[in-house]
Amino acid sequence: MSDFVVYVIDDDLDVLDSIATLLSTSGYEVKTYHNVYEFLESKENSTPGCVLIDLVMPEICGIESMELIRKQRLFYPVVMMSAYGDIEKAVSAVKLGACDYLEKPFEKEKCIKAIEYARSQLNEEGGPADADSQEYLELYDNLTRREKQVFHLIADGQAGKQIANAMSISYRTMEKHKANVLNKLGISSATDIVHILYKNQRPARFSERRERRLSSILSYSNSH
């Protein structure tokens, strides 16, 4: 039996089958559930692992599902999934404890990276998170003042027009700044910005210098 299991909760059976196939062929042990109640009632959820949960489901949403799992004292890292690319909900999910967020449909590499990050949260040393955070700190320093503003407004869940209004610039100019941010950080979508900011608020281990640098970045959104 594997010492790490990926538990997948989604109301769409086709999605469950697709994710199970993708991950099992990549060497992961996968268990699938139609809703969080099936997961909690299962006798096969005791092996440490991570939980992939769909954000939008008819019976009970992903955030509520995550809270129920916590109440059962199953403190597995949670990766939230959504087909809607809703930045505001992504921010809420990560703030409430999800360790990552995947926008469906997602590439195999991105899914595996999210799972490996989740696995690192079960590891006392937390090595992968430390390396990723240092890389993004260095890339963040290459952003202009305006680009940093866009970065933090997106991370706060603001939509494009709201960002343009807040910065007193045109929508087209805002889109240009946003494109520059994505390009400089080497990411492909606005939801990746949520990953960077909120994952780096609570890395497993950081040197004093990195902690100070992260604090200054995270406080930026409150002062601009």
TrEMBL record:
> Per the database record, which ranges form the HTH luxR-type domain?
136-201
What molecular functions are annotated in GO for this chain? DNA binding
Biological process terms in GO annotation: phosphorelay signal transduction system; regulation of DNA-templated transcription
Query: Per its UniProt record, what InterPro entries does this chain match?
Result: CheY-like_superfamily, Sig_transdc_resp-reg_C-effctor, Sig_transdc_resp-reg_receiver, Tscrpt_reg_LuxR_C, WH-like_DNA-bd_sf
- Asked if the record carries the keyword Cell inner membrane, the reply is no
The record's listing under Gene3D superfamilies reads: 3.40.50.2300, Winged helix-like DNA-binding domain superfamily/Winged helix DNA-binding domain
For the modification 4-aspartylphosphate, the affected residues are 54
**What keywords were assigned to this record?**
DNA-binding, Phosphoprotein, Transcription, Transcription regulation
Domain Response regulatory positions: 5-119
Annotated protein name in UniProt: Response regulator transcription factor
Which taxonomic lineage does the organism of this UniProt entry have? Bacteria, Pseudomonadati, Planctomycetota, Planctomycetia, Planctomycetales
